[in-house]
Structure formats: structure tokens, C-alpha cells
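> tool_call: predict_assembly(chains=two)
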Amino acid sequence: MSFKVIAAKQASLLDQELMSTMGFSIDQLMELAGLSVAQSIYRVYPPTTTPSNKSSCLVLCGPGNNGGDGLVAARHLKLFGYNNIQIYYPKPTNRPIFTGLVTQLQQFGIEFIDSTQLSKSFSQSNLIIDALFGFSFKPPMRPPFNSIISEMLKWQLEQDKKIIAVDIPSGWDVDLGPTDACPEIANYQPDLLVSLTAPKPCSLKLNKSKKHYLGGRFISKQFAEKWGIDVPEYPGVDQVVQLQ
Amino acid sequence: MSFKVIAAKQASLLDQELMSTMGFSIDQLMELAGLSVAQSIYRVYPPTTTPSNKSSCLVLCGPGNNGGDGLVAARHLKLFGYNNIQIYYPKPTNRPIFTGLVTQLQQFGIEFIDSTQLSKSFSQSNLIIDALFGFSFKPPMRPPFNSIISEMLKWQLEQDKKIIAVDIPSGWDVDLGPTDACPEIANYQPDLLVSLTAPKPCSLKLNKSKKHYLGGRFISKQFAEKWGIDVPEYPGVDQVVQLQ
């Protein structure tokens, strides 16, 4: 399926306009975005097909909205039957939506781990969700995130581990993909990329062997036309559509 | 399918606890609730099966959260391919989530009608969504809502019109169903009832020939157990499950 992409500067402006002109709250957008991430994961890696039927997930959450999408996705994954979920959220953001998302997850009995538990969690997890950074990331990748990413990529070499990137593989330039400004991720290819609202130019750098879904089903045809982006036909009530 | 119900007083307390202990914002809950209403409608009355393929919807929104669920549902219905949607929202609530929902709908090109357009809209609509009042309704039914309900029930006699009730058929007592305190709705039976979070006792008064779905997939098993309610198995990533 061919699709138009949306450049870095545009993606940021579009996001702002969703919350101004379009009237959405961050809570609404994040809920729908995270739901679509969880639905994409269910499609590609349903809870019953992973080794010994355990479907263990480690969700790596960064300090911004990308991390928030990951927190929402974790809750929906739990509701979808993924019973072993751990979250690593080393720099929690002290804003109501983020503290609320953490409370919700705690109430669902989902464990937040600290840095001393991270290696063990990587070793036990089949699905690693990269919700560290999105389209507003600026290099370089600072600690502790540079070492988290490096460790993640080391674990990806194991056959039973799959990485799911939320909107942008962390560290990739939105327009260019991996660049020299972020050497940690020079060879980073997620197994599944879930673009939100519209694919970014860097998604063209995704290897053809990898899966690519689009989620964030919340813009009107008029809005898409105004921004010159294609909204593919989502089937039925699905919150996601497969692009590759 | 058998299911437990949740009484009026409990429903109200549960709703409060979702936003306190559980950490949800009203924006999140309303988004997921409205999405599940739209998904239920799609299941029972998909956009291609109504006369002349038009699937016209009239969404009747009350001043409270039930009306907000209707506003969210209208947006998702538009995204699901229902192209003729009108909204009657005679007493809009001046709180950010509600004004935001109205802005979103306007940006989607969805028409808000006034009282002079209501009869025409009823006559042209196949699907009428009753999002007027939920579990916090106290009789009597006041103007203009008493006459809106009466007109709605008159139009329901026409074969091509179906009524979808959000959480509670408006005017029904949460525990008892239709009562003498609200004579307007003495014979009111929606064609489809979408209970949210948990069915209320009045749902037992729904005729067996009518459809009943459950939506609002956002509570954990622990939370459900604490409140003594059954959460049925939602299939896959579905936001709704059919009860009847």
C-alpha cells in the first residue's frame, strides 16, 4: 500500500492543531493513540502465539507524550489478555494525565520496575515496546536513555524478542531515519512500527521485512486534505490499518 | 448470557471511584464509552444495511455525561462511515470536555440542529441515538426533554427507525425501569441498549426481542471483583460484547 508521509515540522504543527482548532484534549488523543498501538500489537503478536503462552511485555516509556502513548497501550494490552506486563518509566512526568495513567496501571496490578530490574525484565520479555521518544526528539540521546536503547538493541538479537516502536523508532530523525547524530541507533529496525495519525518520512527507512501499521484514527477527511495527508481506509471499527 | 447488574447507588459510586482511586479522567472514560457505543451501533446497524444506503443518524444529547457519550459516539460513527449525522443538543454544558467535543464535531462537518429542525431530522433518520439521560436522572422529565422523548417514541413506530439507548433508556429508573414518575416513557423500549461498564438492574426490563451490548471496557478484574460485578470476556480487541 502506498501512502503519503508527513514531515517533522508538519507533524508538530498538526499535533498542535489537533488540540487547538480541532478541539481535542491530550487525554483523548493519547487514549486513542495508545489503544491503536495495543490493537496493532494484538494483530501482529496476539497473546496466544508467544512462547509458552506467556506474552511477556516490557514497556519502555520516555518522559514525553510518546511515553504516555506507551502507558495507555500497556493498560489496553492488559485488558486484551497480556498478563505479564512490566513498565520502565525512569523519568515520570508530573502532569495530571501522566500521573493519572500511572495510577490506572497500578490499579490494574501492572508492575513498574526500576533500573536494577531492567536486565531481568528484558531477558524475560517477548515483546518490548519502545515508547521512549517520538517526533519531538532532538539528539543526542542522553542518559539513561542511551544505555536503555543500547541494551534493548542487544536483546533484539535474541530470536524470541520483538520490538514495537510507537510512532517513531526512538532516536531516528523524523525525516531521515537513523543519523550519525545518534550512533546508538545506527542499526535500529523495529519489528513493528505503529505510525500515529500519519506516517512520518523516516518510515520509508523501515526494512520491507518489518511490519508497519497506522493508528490514531481521529482526523476528518477535511483535516487530512488540508494537511495534504492520505487517510487510508480503516476497515470497519478498527482503530488500525496495516500499511506494510 | 447471564450477567450481574449494578444498582443505582453503586453505579454512581463506581463512577466516582473510576475518577478518584482508578485515576481516570472524564475525557478518557467518555472517549472509551462513546467509542463502544459507536462500535455497538456498527455491529447491529452497519452503515450499508439501512434503506437507500444512507444510514442517517440523529443523536439526541442531554446536558450531562450521557450526552457527552453521545457526542463522542457521533464522531466515531462519522469515522466509521455514517455520513448523514445530525445532533440535537438543546442544553449544551459549558465545561471544557463538552465544548471540546462540540468543536471536534463541527470540524468533522457534523451538523447541530435546533428545535425547528427536529421533526424533519426525525423523519429523515434511520438511527436515533438516545443520549439524553443516564443513571443520575431524577424524574420528572422536564421541558424540552419530555416532548423530545415523546416525539422520539412516536417516530419509533415507523418501521425504518431504530432507537439506540446509551447506558439507560432515558427516563427509566436505574433499578426499576419505566415507572409512573415518568409517564412519557411508560412504553419505551429501545431497539438496542448499550450498557456502560456494567448493566444496570433496569436492563432486565428490556424485552427479550431487543439487543443488548456492554461497552466501556476500562475496568480491571480486581476492580470488578471489589464491586461484585461480572466483566464478561470481551473478544479480542473489541470494545463491546453482546449480552442479548
